[in-house]
Amino acid sequence: MAAFDSEDLLYDLADLFKMFADSTRVRILYALLDGEKNVGELADSLSMNQSAISHQLSVLKASKLVKARRDKKSMYYCLADDHVESIIKTGVEHVLEP
Amino acid sequence: MAAFDSEDLLYDLADLFKMFADSTRVRILYALLDGEKNVGELADSLSMNQSAISHQLSVLKASKLVKARRDKKSMYYCLADDHVESIIKTGVEHVLEP
DNA sequence: TGAACATATGAACAGTTGAACATATGATGA
DNA sequence: TCATCATATGTTCAACTGTTCATATGTTCA
Lengths: 98, 98
Known about the structure:
Two copies of one chain form a homodimer. Chain A is 61% helix and 14% strand. Chain A has helices at 6-19, 23-32, 39-46, 50-62, 82-96; strands at residues 37-38, 66-71, 74-79. A three-stranded antiparallel β-sheet of chain A has the order 1-3-2. In chain A, a hairpin with a 2-residue loop joins strand 2 (66-71) and strand 3. In chain A, helix 3 (39-46) packs across helix 4 (50-62). The first copy, chain A, starts with 5 loop residues before the first helix and ends with a helix. Chains A and B meet through helix 1, helix 2 and helix 5 of A and helix 1, helix 2 and helix 5 of B. The first copy, chain A, binds a DNA duplex through helix 4.
């Protein structure tokens, strides 16, 4: 087994995967692979209302998976770091295989 | 964006991550990184009752993340393939970083 | 075969979660 | 400043999820 206390780690790990375990959040993160987008653009491209997207963005931000910046009236969100991309890609690999 | 219809993929992806989004299931999968274990051993090492473990194992098996074989009275479970390990490790990397 | 062991299954319950709606906050520019 | 646009937040509710308890199924070996 691992050298550190793995129990805490595994609870954190489950919490991390929870962020990817909802289709709305995954679709948001996937859309952001292209680059930053504002709330309205995300709502349009996912065909969901603004409130639902905003709620999920706040959850993702609290988990530090996305970052936000303001430009004029709009809030632009982007992926917080490269890990997000690699987690998605590792998952995609699994889903796409026989 | 991707060349295939990414919508179905992303729902499958969320379903995949759901399996890792519960601490009991993550702990089971993590324990199985060591090699196969039977239901009683898993229940002992996670300090949970047999029924809870069995329920989660059936979920994991339905998602093809674990495989089972019988030996005498016991059912031994192991990880279904290497992807499971790489998904966990990619997640661990993220959790362990500043 | 039948007792004992190991695991699976079913039902019920509490806790959690995501979406919708309504409304509030905040920024912009006339 | 005020109307408007863009986003955030609070609340409610239905749906989902994981655990527990009770019981069933299935296997082994005397």
